[in-house]
Automatic annotation (TrEMBL):
InterPro entries: FBPase_C_dom, FBPase_class-1, FBPase_N, FBPtase, Fructose_bisphosphatase_AS. One of its GO terms (biological process) is fructose 6-phosphate metabolic process. GO terms for cellular component: cytoplasm. It holds the Pfam family FBPase_C. CDD domains: FBPase. It comes from the Archaea. Residues 176-295 form the Fructose-1-6-bisphosphatase class 1 C-terminal domain. Its main location: cytoplasm. The keyword Ribonucleoprotein does not apply. One of its GO terms (molecular function) is fructose 1,6-bisphosphate 1-phosphatase activity. This is Fructose-1,6-bisphosphatase class 1. Homotetramer. The gene is fbp.
Length: 300
């Protein structure tokens, strides 16, 4: 069975990028261990003023330290850190964006959560998704899986009992599908989002939403449909972040033959103005995104 390293070699990835992806993948084991030792919420809030699980800060500090010490990355921007970290001694120009623990409010309920990573070249994180060299997410579910794109389609690897990632699904393609999940609440949705949801519900779309973006997206990747976190009346940029969530997952979605949108354009075409900026997010099958953009046409 093809291992992650064998895949990266066969894909022709440069050695340092291979090392960086392997290093990130290896952090799933200590993270899984830490779920057991970091269960209680602490009295801290992250830079967005949201309640933060201890596991968020731990995973953030852990990955930042490991990647910082690797000498492989020049910059790192994390959902959990106000400032972009710079590593002047690095011998490589990779720049990493990450959500170290996405869906963290679900840890206490033992539903799946994940780590989202985007890797740019060129030494800076302030780039559009079109420039990504690689994107991946590790999903901590019944299995630990690593869903990866290095710009050559999407491969899913599963960790075996020895900690080795082995190819589980090759060249994933998002089916059209009927599943949907959406953040926000009906009274807070902007009108075009509401119209879109009501239209697909009429057509028999089936709701699937846990509140963990990576887990919910992985279901869409597998069965088709759409994940949405829309603009809300009081929050026109929605909730999720462009760099840490939209861009890496959006890259994977588009590499799997799906599409992404903020209602008007691909998430990968948005040029970030500041690391923590938010964006409405739609990721899913092409037919679903067509309907989203039709609903938003002529607005905003
Ligand atoms: P987090 O990165 O702090 O966990 O927040 C992001 C999460 C997503 O994983 C999820 O899709 C969304 O927030 C759920 O938000 P809501 O509870 O508003 O539906
Ligand atoms: Mg998140």
């Amino acid at each position: 069975m093809t291992t992650l390293r064998e895949y990266l070699e066969s894909a022709g990835c440069e050695a340092a990028l291979q090392d960086l992806i392997m290093l990130i993948g290896r952090q799933a084991a200590p993270i899984r261990e830490a779920f057991i030792t970091h269960q209680a919420y602490v009295d801290t809030e992250n830079v967005f003023g949201e309640q933060q699980a201890a596991m968020d800060t731990w995973a953030d500090a852990w990955i930042t330290r490991v990647l910082g010490e690797s000498g492989l990355i020049r910059e790192l921007a994390s959902e959990e850190q106000e400032e972009v970290s710079v590593f002047p001694d690095s011998t490589h120009e990779y720049a990493v964006v990450m959500d170290p623990m996405d869906g963290s409010s679900l840890i206490q309920t033992n539903l799946s959560v994940g780590t989202i990573i985007g890797i740019f070249g060129g030494g800076t994180v302030m780039q559009s998704g079109r420039n990504l060299k690689a994107a991946l997410y590790m999903l901590y579910g019944p299995m630990t899986t690593l869903t990866l794109s290095v710009g050559q389609g999407v491969q899913v690897f599963a960790m075996d009992k020895d900690g080795e990632y082995r190819l589980l699904h090759q060249d994933m393609k998002i089916p059209e599908g009927k599943n949907y999940g959406t953040g926000g609440t009906r009274p807070t949705w902007v009108a075009p989002h509401r119209a879109f949801i009501e239209a697909i519900e009429e057509e028999g779309a089936k709701i699937r939403y846990t509140g963990s973006f990576v887990a919910d997206f992985h279901q869409i990747l597998t069965y088709g449909g759409i994940y949405c976190y829309p603009a809300l009346n009081e929050k026109p940029k929605g909730k999720l972040r462009l760099l840490y969530e939209a861009i890496p997952v959006g890259f994977i979605a588009e590499q799997a033959g799906g599409r992404t949108s903020d209602g008007h354009q691909s998430l990968l075409d948005i040029v970030p103005e500041e690391p923590h900026q938010r964006t409405p997010i739609y990721v899913g099958s092409p037919g679903m995104i067509r309907k989203v953009e039709a609903a938003f046409e002529g607005t905003g």
